Amino acid sequence: MVNGSVFVVATCDGWRCLMTIRENIEQNELQNLSPFAAASVRTRGRELFEEPCDVRTEFMRDRDRILHSKAFRRLKDKTQVFLSPQGDHYRTRLTHTLEVSQIARTVAKGLRLNEDLVEAIALGHDLGHTPFGHAGERALNKLSPYGFKHYEQSLRVVERLEKNGQGLNLTWEVRDGIVNHQMDTIPATLEGKIVRLADKIAYIHHDMDDAQRAGIISEDDIPITIRMTLGYTTKERLNTFVIDMINSSEGRNDICQSPEVEDAMRMLRKLMFQDVYTNPVAKSEEIKVGRMLTHMFDYYRNNPELMSSEYRRLITEGEPVERVVCDYISGMTDQFCVNKFKEIYVPKSWDIF
Length: 353
Fold this sequence. Notes:
The structure is a single chain. By secondary structure, the protein is mainly α. The chain has two domains: 2-32, no CATH class; 40-338, Hypothetical protein af1432. Helices cover 59% and strands 4% of the residues. It has 17 helices and three strands. It has a three-stranded antiparallel β-sheet with strand order 1-2-3. β2 (6-11) and β3 (14-20) form a beta hairpin.
């Protein structure tokens, strides 16, 4: 039976404690997960030691910390691809994150890898993204003397910015997966590699779906050779990506795609860049984004005392002003950024009476 968070068993001389719920989960991982999986009990740990939880493994705790963070909640009002779309069904940065998590968890379950680690990495991978999607990221990268990459900022969010400068103190494996989710580097765990590829699959899938909803592209615009390999609808293509990823990676210490699916996905991604990501309908407002963030950056660099207290504290602790200004602006939602810009630069009518 279970008493609180501890498994107990009746003996002739009373009740004897066996193990906590967490220890039972950890034991099940060692017995049932793939030998290539990152077991919770084998984590490289946290920068600051914490006593283990009786109920949750270390990766489960990381997932929960990310889920309850302020940066995660702000994702619901940040652009994915379409700036200020007219409609309720276009993806945001939050729905993108949830779709990455769903794809990655399905693959992890199919390969008997650590689903909790996959979920934690997926939920945290875009915490550092700017308002207005990659348009905002490109603007801050030009403005900051330190450069700006959203995956590096995601790591900075969990290590430095959350909890009023204390950070979330996540495990090494989760932080590694977050900072290495882009395609130029390789995560240390298979779980991180799953998220890395699931991120790419998710945005190709849902951006195609959103582009079709917006009338920018249609199924007939997709070459028949791609559709014959991946499927004739967005749903069929997503199913193909997931199943192929599981089948190609089964029994291997790597996360792979079959050559034909990988090649078809590369061609589909090229088509998306050609017809969607650089399409003037989808990107017509990006020049305005660059101008607005330039003004915002200059304003707060010259008036850092007008940022909120948690960011002013970073400056008093020795952080460069330009870096903290990037922290402040990148943490804004789209609408908060627009409202701040109006507050600073757009004159208000006088209320005489």
